[in-house]
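Follow-up to my earlier ticket, as requested here are the two runs.
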Amino acid sequence: MIYSCCDDDRRRNAVKAHATLNGIDFLEVRDLDTDPLDQRQRTLLVHFLKNLTPGELTEQNVVIEGGERTKDIKVTSVTIGSLTSPPLSPPANAPDVLVVEVSARGDFSTYTLRLVKTDDEDTPPDNFDPILSSIDFSFKVACPTDFDCKTEHVCAPASVTEPEINYLAKDYASFRQLILDRMALLTPDWTERSPADLGITLIELLAYVGDYLSYQQDAVATESYLGTARRRTSVRRHARLVDYHMHDGRNARVWVQFTAGPGGDGLTLVKGSGADTTKLLTKVAGQSNTLIAQNSRAFDEALNSRPLVFELLHDLTIFEAHNQIKFYTWESRDCCLPKGSTNATLQDDLEQPLSLSVGDVLIFEEQKGPETGIAEDADPSHRHAVMLTKVTPGTDPLTDVPVVDIEWSRADALPFALCVSGETPNGFTDDISVALGNVALADHGMTFTDLGEPVRSLVPDTVPEPDPALQTVIATNRDRCDPAEPPSPRVRYRPRLTQSPLTHAAPFDSLSSASAAMTLSTKDKSQLPLPSLRLLRLTGEPAPEPWTPVRDLLSSHASAHEFVVEVETDGTTFIRFGDDILGAQPRSGTKFFALYRIGNGDAGNIGADALAHLVSPTITDATAVLAVRNPLPAAGGIAAETIEEVRQNAPSAFRVQERAVTTSDWEEIVVRKELADRCGIDVQRVAATPRWTGSWHTMFVTVDRLNGADVDNAFETKLRDCLERYRMAGEDLEIDAPSYVSLDIEIAVCIKRGYFFSDVKQELLDVFSDRALPNNQRGLFHPDNLSFGQPIYLSTLIAAAQAVAGVDSVMVKKFQRQHIDSNVALNSGKLELGRLEIARLSNDPNFPERGSLRILAAD
């Protein structure tokens, strides 16, 4: 047959259904491992469509043609369903099989078996179909091979002569001239060049399209490299290749204080959801009311003034008694809370008792000048928020005044001395500073939603149908009889958010998730912000199906309803979905509704007392909330990282060691600032020691905490969880405390004339203490001044003592480790410490084992 057809079975079925015609169905080469070697590949089993009659075909009717090395193969025997030479045996009861024995086995080339008449080798025998009277085969079909024996049907495409085209054409003018030159070659008689001519119009239109396509190609080449890319999306993706996350900014947070009115005592301010959230606005010109109704004309007019909008992060119950709370000084006058304080006493009221509880936030505020008692002289920087960790109601037994003792964590310790009461020119004032209650945390940004709104925030908001123009073209040199199914074109759906800037906020669970107000308000950098955007896909179920944002889709499974937000320099926000491999791809016709917030960056870092208006979906009584203010400025807002900053930082990001191998790696990683921010640990210095513990290697990490804090079980667990990602496989990790060396020091001083020894001694004890001193300095043996293996020099002690006013001369009589009498350090002038040892001198009679210091008067 001269044709290459894909439907050979049509002829075969037609011959099989014919009344008289017969033909070859297929051919087998007998080549079994059990056959004698001289008989292998010399028996051909020719299967016919119908049964053969005895004597219908003889040796003269079968011809073997072809061969490269072995030619002229002769047919020696032809039988129907039997063999002439045992022990080979053909299939039993096979009248449709013709057993053909040949004189020799063929080579690896293709042979042809043909049925012919005895007197004419070109004509098939009677009643045999001319198409099915021959068949191609190979004697080596059973030989091992690495290739598929299936025949490919390929019709080679005709070669096309490529026209001579100047591929340097890149702009409109060169494309126009290129097309004109081509037209002059194809149609030399056409010489019209008038712009009004239809042909010229088409040429100029094609030149415009070519110019636009050329610009797109240049833009793609520009965005292909970090050094030349101009779009934030391109720079973000380049940086992600080296594991660098581009920062899109973060919104600000602020503590807000509400003044409860007569109608608001015990009222709960609900956070709300969707567009019905409790909002706080900065001061709006012409708006004097504190409370603005939701979805009112006044609210719309206020938004037209473009104020900054904040939203509550949690519910808050307000009380009139918490509007302003006085400190109780136990009948003392001229008092202050010293710097570093972590507890105080508040004055309660029997008629309106305080309802404070653990987790509430109070703001300490200086309301009057300590020297004058005038409100205008108050220091606005003397304001501080604390989160209560302990609340103990009680009563002063002397005056029967109800009081409340409060405590807060060291993280919220007062950063300054707060004056509580004092004598002023106008008399005694006991409310120079007060505590403000009814405090809630608010986040910069305003929530919008598409649900129930005619205007959509996504453009487009519906996933389009696949573009047929994007159908993959199958190569023409493929098997045309077995065409591969072309892959379905991907849906190009990258919607744009109509409003900007999109809020990027750190996660917030509740106030109980933290133990310090400062942590919540400043938002640790360890809390990676995520876009405040959710997409809802209506599926006919009672609740819409949500899609949530992630930083990237590299860890998303194929069915994950997740997406990535990509923000451009001008704030335009695009949404990128997955491809059903990394993240799910939305199906055509899906309609999305957006729930998102607008407001981001350092613009939200408003100053103190900038908020003035409350917009509540539930409160209608104007007397419920009399005032809204933020005593403290907003904090935590960060501007988006610029493209130039990424170009400078991203290329070296991969050089940061993310696997602790050596001891220096452990010592460097543990003290990283980003690790401290992410895990909330306070580490000053670390010493790592590898040890063989009998069955495996163990890395002992000895930690020197800030302020000499204990390495307790809670801290050890937190640090171990933080360091797990850096630990090498097969190596164990242990966290332990330093070896503290208590000192025993005795100093004799000679006092100058006019000074009292007791005063000088007290000053020396402060200088050599381990405490923070009132003058913003630390004692010589403060834990943060000492660390691993740091020797103590005698000269340092003498210089510190000599600097104290009233000291004339100093003589150190004892300088040694506690309970180890030795003059080695005194004679050498230096007390040596081991690698994991830290000096300690508390001079505390409650803990004599922590070192002792004696100040003596010189004889």
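Run two:
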Amino acid sequence: MVLPADIDALSNAELKALVLALVTRVTELERTVAAQRDEIARLKGLPGRPPIKPSGLDQATAPKEARRSGRLRRRTKRAELRVHEERVITVEALPKDARFKGYASFLVQDLVLQAKVVRLRRERWLTPDRQTLTAPMPAEVTGHFGAGLRRFVLAQYHQGQVTIPRLLEQLASLGVMISKRQLVRLLISGQDGFCAEAQAVLRAGLESAAWISVDDTGARHRAHNAVCTQIGNDHFAWFGTTASKSRLNFLELLRAGHRDYVINPAALDYMRQRALSGPVIAQLQAHPEQHFADAATWQAHLERLDIPALTVTPDPVRIATEGALWGAIQAHGLLPDTVIVSDDAGQFLVGRHALCWVHAERLVHKLDTFTDEQRFAQQHLRRLIWWFYRDLKAYAREPSRRRRSELKARFERIFTRRTGFVMLDRLLQRLHANKAELLMVLERPAIPLHTNGSETDIRAQVIRRKISGGTRAEAGRDCRDAFLGLLKTCRKLGISFWHYLGERLGVPDAPAVPSLPDLVRARCIAA
């Protein structure tokens, strides 16, 4: 930076601009010095800066009565237990004239795990014309391993997060003779019914949910980095692993298994909002063909219209494809008026959108400060945000028009203030630009103010990534995602995953479990 020769000759506006530029420069230098200090400490083997703990915005603003009642709540389990065996314990030596006063009950829970081998002896008969007749296999027998063993393997692997080597060792200790290849087949072969039900759960949720929250995390597939995306709410969860985390990929996931592309008013509105050129939109709108069965048909249509030959920004092929995907989503009745709550990642910015307040406050919390004035400004702003967040939660419980107007005015006062801390002021401007998404709860009080549910759901995928290698086959990837979604959905619906697996696999005496998509649809509509 070159300083002017005569500072006294500068006007007030020029002096302010100069001071602002110098403060920005100093802040950048301080951040560089801090990064270099950490690198030097790492090279010398010295401890670096301590990690910043989560802000705790949501828990700290919860009503004290709710938090206290949550800790003291106790549930009685005895009424839910089914007694399988009853023993009567007698008194060996009774004194004379003792009177019987009934029984003192004492419940003992136990678990019996043992291998069970069944030999099927099928009759064989030789007919007079030299034909051999063999008795057919029972309908419930689908291989050398029964439904109970398959349920145990699936529950241990997906719910218990047990790795394949440890599961092999566990089965061997129980007396089950099974190879690694056979175990992998039990996990991924013949699971089309479960994968179809997981896809149906997603469709039911997207058709009927008032809101969904989304998140993604890293995954490994075929020795390459991939992305696992979570979609769900309080009543369902679904996971999909893909090679990309673009908005195009997210829209493909939101189609919930459909493969078509549609040009309709929703698609055209999407293209206009993304600044696609008018002549391209007019071409797509005027063409008689508006529905395309798959990606190849859609790409051929774009090439007939010479759209890929256009070298303009934004990319007309990408915007047109995103619009056609959004048109297909709306054509299938998905996300009719659904709010998508996210952490401000760009790929999730579609449809009606709301932002997570915890992630917004975390930006202020993680901001580096170097002076007492900067630290004071940061802490003061955090107190204002926490106070405002607490009142937003109170509004969501009891919405009113007057409170809505007051909260909008308070948002303006908080996020248009200037603290003199350049980096903090820039962050405030960024958050103020997201006003509509941050205050979506004022229009839709039912939506959450955060994406904690999605982060909790996707944590299981993070644990799986840490303890196991990635998947190799497409079937393995699809089964991992499907069973994780079914497990989370059962938990949210209050259904035992063990019972669910038993009923779907045909285990004798397993309790009946209704269709999960039907339950999800009913819960979302009633919410």
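The only thing I checked on run two: The longest strand covers residues 211-221. Let me know what else you need.
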